[in-house]
């Protein structure tokens, strides 16, 4: 009754009581993150700074720098000649083989020359006959001249005058016959010289001193020189070689006669052969077929001494035409130079120090240092985390 009197509300037995409030899961997550952040900050402080970094360095050294135009080339003998046959016939004897050393004027080959020898012999006999005929006419002329002289002394008589005219006529005819015979003799002598020269050409001699680099004919082979010169041997002077380089039209503008050049061969890639550019041919070589539409190249020529004979005809050469060079200069890798020209130098304490050195010549890999760096200093070319160490390290 007291409860009713005071107006208190009694809940019905079926009425639900209000839910009890509990802390949300998000508060748990936030708490864990906060603790992790505090732990990370403590570890950072204990470690003493950022993760350890290893620097890639390169020393400032003295070296030679060089910029060059590169090209491929082919090694050829500086002087060479193809020896051919000037007369037709069978190659009777070949006195040399490929690789033999020959001297100028040395007998190389002999061609069967029976026909030429017979022609020479016939002309010699004809000249002998003509010489005898001339001697006979000369004797007749002497007699005719004496007869004309005797009749001339008797010119006062009418009968002697007729005889004088006949004697003078005979004398003049003999003189004319001798002149005609002399012309025939001169022609025969010219023919004999020609046949003797043809006979001499059957013995082929070397036009130069050098080495036989190729034998192009064999003994017993029939040679026909009426339409084309059949080649027998190729002789070259291997003491001096010439390199023919194919240079692109984009690079040929940088070449000048007299500029230094060096090359290597496939057999000796580490051996540099140095020379001087002799000339650049003014027009590109004529190309045929599919090569006519290929890249335009120009031929650059230079000579190289070959005393040991290590350079052989036909070898491929990798050629470098030096357009710019600097010898024994301070240099650093290009990778150590920033875009603004700054360089980071590793101090003795192991900390980087930024400098702005003065630079000179630059190649693809290195740049010349004219001031601002000393020989032996270490420049930083890159950096990376230290291998094997954690980014976060707890101090003991």
- Nearest-integer average pLDDT: 83
* CATH architectural group of the domain at 69-77 and 238-324: Beta Barrel
Oligomer: single chain
Strand order of the largest sheet: 2-9-12-11-10-13
Number of helices: 4
The string of secondary-structure elements, in order, is HHEEEEEHHEEEEEEEEEEEEE
Beginning-to-end CA distance, first to last residue: 76 Å
What is the highest CATH level, the class of the domain at 69-77 and 238-324?
Mainly Beta
CATH fold name of the domain at 69-77 and 238-324: Elongation Factor Tu (Ef-tu), domain 3
User: What can be said about the biggest beta sheet?
Assistant: 6 strands, antiparallel, barrel
The coarse silhouette is rod-shaped
Question: Count the strands?
Answer: 18
Rg on CA atoms, Å: 52 Å
Query: pLDDT under 50 segments (min length 5)?
Result: 1-23, 41-47, 389-396
- The CATH superfamily of the domain at 69-77 and 238-324 is Efflux pump adaptor protein, beta barrel domain
DSSP helix fraction: 25-40%
Structural class: alpha+beta
- Strand coverage percent: 35-45%
GO molecular function: efflux transmembrane transporter activity
Region (Disordered): 1-22
Coiled coil: 113-184
Family: Belongs to the membrane fusion protein (MFP) (TC 8.A.1) family.
Blueprint of the fold:
Layout: H1 2-5, H2 25-47, E1 53-59, E2 61-84, E3 89-94, E4 101-102, E5 107-111, H3 114-153, H4 158-201, E6 203-205, E7 210-215, E8 222-223, E9 231-248, E10 260-265, E11 273-280, E12 297-305, E13 316-333, E14 343-346, E15 352-355, E16 358-362, E17 366-371, E18 378-385
Antiparallel strand pairs: 1-18, 2-9, 2-13, 3-5, 3-8, 4-7, 5-6, 7-9, 9-12, 10-11, 10-13, 11-12, 13-17, 14-15, 14-18, 16-17
Helix pairs in contact: 3-4
